[in-house]
Queue: 4 jobs
Job 1
Amino acid sequence: MAQSLHPAASHDLPAFITAPGETDVLMVVMAVFLLLAIVMFGLLFLRLHTLPERMAHKSKKIQFELVAVLGLIALFTHMHIFWIAGLLLALIDLPDFGGSLGRIATSTETIAGLKPGGAADALRPESTADEATSDEAAGAARETHATAREAAVLSKAPSAPPARKKELRHA
């Protein structure tokens, strides 16, 4: 049975109009294009959203974790101020106090005669098996120390502070 066009229909139909029962090629192409456009937009959004984190990671900033957390908070709360704060932190170079403090700690351990990096091990008690005995000993030591301190305070007479030389005024 051959299908004929309706007498009122135009005989010159555009190429995107398909016959009944055939695949609509234009709809398939547009569905694939729309799917790719959504994926590309999502990738662009996430790439732009992680910009502060990538900047802080690339320049090896100390505040990298803070920038990453601010980015995640901004992503999940949709509050853009966190993203802006993360971007500003990624751009600012904070000083590294950890390196200087580590060198000070190592020097102090060396002066004290301890192995550098092992001061925490030297301060730990050897055994904690007899906690009750050690608590009693610590209590007795505290009482002895408090008694000695009270005796020292009572035996000392109040004295005047040592006199200091006056500085000359700078003009």
Job 2
Amino acid sequence: MSVRRAGCVLLSGVLCMAAPRAEAWGPGVHQAVTGRAIDTLPGGLKTFYRTHRLELPTLSLEPNFPEEGPERRFAIDHMMPFPFLDFPTSEAAVKARFGEAGAEIGRLPWLTLESYSRLVDAFKSRDKGRILEESDTLASLLTDLHNPLALTENADGQKSEQNGLWVRFSVKLPEAMGGRLKLSPDAAAFLDDPKGYLFDIVRGSYVWADNVLYLDEIAHRGKSGYTEIYYEFLELRAGEVLKARLSVAAREVGSYWYTAWTAAGRPELK
């Protein structure tokens, strides 16, 4: 897997249908979510991840982050309007129904499910290196799924004359908030249907897309550019949305780790 290196610190601290390529979140967001996901876990599983925390690629002393690209998007509203209840839940069914158009919106849910399956296999093997690497990959993909802009064809605000929104909300706002961006995830839970639940996550994330667009527009009213003042206004309006999205992401990362471990028979880990 190709990776992008970044010397960042933990925050405490469409698919580009017509939008420029950019990270779904900045490196600090991925570190914050992955770190807090460990705290959501029960008993011995939490001990395992805490013990090997710095061996997770995202949290290592020289962190590695997967390269972002068009596959790590899912512009589902290009295919049908919300709430997407009739949307197929397998990649093959999407291609059968929508043809090439279905292949162009991104693969984020399928990438996530593929990673989850590999994590189950890694737990079965009890290979610590595989477990940690795949746990990190799955955390990154699930975190991306909690960015509402990753799920709309208006990802960069290009359809509403808000060009550059992707980086403003996903990268620069978290950086501007710094230590004020504190996550408060609930405890991880076992998922009876990891595949079906993934599309609940898609719907639960997408509902915030219009809110993000609106809050960006409000924060920019009467301003000539996107200066420090703009980010102060955006934090007042969208800061709680960002905290909530990332707190939920941390819980869901923990839940998928816990579910994968359970599906593998709850092996003893050291």
Job 3
Amino acid sequence: MNLGMGGPAGSNKAAAKRQPDSAQPQEAIRTVGPMLTEEEGEHMRTKLVVIVTALGLLLAAVPAWAHHAFAAEFDQNKPIKVQGAVVKWELTNPHSWIHIDVKGTDGKTVTWMIEGASPNNLYRLGLTKESLPPGSVISVEGYQAKDGSTRAVGRNIVFANGKKFFLGLSEAESGPAKP
């Protein structure tokens, strides 16, 4: 009976197409996605995990690079005590900054930038956004920047009414230990 396969020869050709040739061993290759074998897919997943992990560690380290130690920027041998009017108070992380206008011995006004603790630490110590309005006269004790600029890390601030506040940096961050 001929079923439209082109006779006995045609049915052998069709059978050959459906069944693998036993003379040539065929390996079963399981694919993952359109063109990757299972082994290649596993290798790609491993690479992706390594890259994502490395990127995560790098991003986690960025804040550590941005933060600095006292000794990197300030000189323990240059203690300062300045008095002036608050120009502005920046409550930004990781440290706050108080800008004050200080009159020099020559009568010229110079703006000093005083670094303090983080806003959260200062709030815990009782300082709020309203504690240092522009124009408030304060005295600051601290340590000048190594580059000799009008920048310092503050240790204490004293208000005109005599009230004294610790600027919230730990002993290790705020400068040398007192004997």
Job 4
Amino acid sequence: MPEIDTNLIENKLPGFLKEFSTEIVSTQDYRGDLTVVLSSGAVRKAIAFLKMHLKFEVLMDVFAMDYSKFEPGTPERFAVIYNLFSLSKKRRVRLKVFLKEENPEVDSVYDLYASANWFEREAWDLFGIQFKGHPHLTRILCHNEFEGHPLRKDYPSDGYQQLRRASPSVGL
């Protein structure tokens, strides 16, 4: 059973534990940076709480990971990780949500942080993670004719795909 350090959460994120006690799966503190693993349904509400109430003004990064060949095993194949930073408190927090292999999906936070727009598009393009409510989830790194998601562990390492026709990007 994963461990939840309630004192750690309350010291670093006052009020967060009270608001999300049933949604927290585990916690970890590594070199002073807190990682909170949440259930996938709570991530949008948790990020809004961190921004509005605890003054985490900057979404530094959103990225995905494929844990399919990771030892020891993880609860699900995919994870989406959100790195947030508070300028006023000079503190970082990392939120992680695990997603099922079939239809990996999580709520978008693009309207809370403008930077999430491109981060979420990158995670979709490279891993196939769906962000519910994202207004323009299109390819950002791979060409429009590309089939599949190249950073998934099951994508063939020799999966070369030739670009058949180059056309200017539309709608960026």
